[in-house]
Amino acid sequence: MKINRILSSALCAAVLCGTVYADSVNVSYNPETELININGSFDKLSESTAYSVQVKKLSDDTVVYTTFDYAKGNAFDFSFMLDGVESDEYYVSVMPYTGDGANSKENPIFISSASEKDNILKNVLSNQTDKSVMAGLLDANLKYFGLNKNNCDYFNLSASSKQAAAERMLNKSYSYDKYGEFLDLLNLTAGIEMLDNADESTVTAVFEKYFTYFDLTGEVCYPIYSGSDKGVKNQTAVKAMAVKNFVGKDLTDLKAVKKYFNENLLLAAISNIVSPGEITTHIENYKTAIPFSLDVYNSTDKAKTASYISGLKRSYTLMSTLESDIVSAKNAQSGGGQGGGSSSGKGSGGSSSSGGFYSPGETNGQNEQKGSFNDMTSAHWAYETVEALKAKGVVSGDQNGNFNPENNITREEFAKMIVLAFGLYDENAECAFADTKDHWSYRYVASLYKNGITNGIDADTFGVGIKITREDMATLCAKAAKLAVKEGALSFADASDVSDYASGYVVSLCESGAVKGFEDNTFKPKNNATRAEASSVIYSLIK
């Protein structure tokens, strides 16, 4: 390895760090030709258009390289090579023969010999096994390769991110004749950490900067990103959305970056369709990017499923949401199947109605006081129950601090509430529902299953993503509270609409005082339950 390659690479960083008094200064280095190119324009130029470039030793200002050239007008463009300098710290100065110039003395670079670099790579950085040690060695030795905070993002990482990056460089052998591979790996690891820690304001710049290192052109969804798939509409918006969706993802390694690259692009394409049929096409073309089984999807009428998903008008960020919507589409096509457990006859006895469910939007007439959530005051009918459950750690708000009391609650969300409210969480619990595998709700649903509280909507499906009905909520609550199934009749005007499996549990809850109907004497068993209603019935059973 020639010494001029070493100095040339380092000088590239040095000139970038300098503050030449010029309108613009651009520096580039071609590793193949070993040329440093400097071009730009001076702010002020004397009558003489000559300017000089010098490389000096930092310790004593010894000039090791000097040359001059002539500016064209006030512009300059100069390339040069270096050979035969000793290992030391150096700086670069550029200035016109008359007038002000500038140098990089405050940001010197260390120029070392090829043998020293080879020794560092082979005997210091190779075959390390401890990430903390490796991070320290990188901090101390990368300067020997002309790398610093101005040209290498590794130096700009936090201490924990440096260790995470260093961990990816462990147990490898390095040498200077393969320095390019070492530098590529360093940039890759720094890029992964930068992307992992990016926010919405920085993620696009980080992704574009390190795109080459991520090696994504061979990925299944790359045609969406590149625009070569002309079936993807709104490609610019799709591309931007996909990159934004890296924020918040767990990017532990390159495999994770590629996984979310594919998933984000497919989700963005589905989110930006013009017609429902595009959803079917996208899923078929990019099905290998989908992390969940497509058995449920393939069992549906795909055209109807596409229309259902299109009608939701979602901006998808998670594959789990798409999976849930496919399950919901299947349920809609099959005409129900949201039952929560065993059946019970309705009977023909007296009626019960007290406490619990209230009509959404009903207020208690108190002077409004703000509580734990931005969107709930003491005027809301469920205020006290929600506050009580918040204090017990059963409920929480969204990222904006809202409880969203009138939003419908999904089956898995309600499962979590029951488990937390009744103390049923079992970290060893298991279940075989396909739609909970690898889903955040798995252990909560498994805990309900282990306690005999749910059997899912069928043997293989819990119903993740499906909004829970009022009768299913009543069924699960009665089981969790271990209320006996009652044979009495219901007095609700729509009692005949209550499913057989739920009737006995609704009677039990009515007799316990946990629920009552609406002002028109209906129970509305098939209506989706709200978060406020869920909170009300649960708190009525545990207070």
UniProtKB/TrEMBL annotation:
Query: Where does the signal peptide begin and end?
Result: 1-22
Query: Which InterPro entries does the protein's record reference?
Result: Cell_Envelope_Struct_Comp, SLH_dom
Phosphoprotein among the record's keywords?
no
Q: Does the keyword Repeat apply?
A: yes
Q: Specify the superkingdom.
A: Bacteria
Biased composition annotated in UniProt, kind: Gly residues: 334-353
Ranges for the region named Disordered are 330-373
Domain SLH: where? 369-432, 433-488, 489-543
Compositionally biased tracts (Polar residues): 361-373
State a single Pfam family of this protein: SLH
- Tell me which UniProt keywords the record has, alphabetically: Repeat, Signal
Its protein name is: S-layer homology domain-containing protein
Source organism: Qingrenia yutianensis
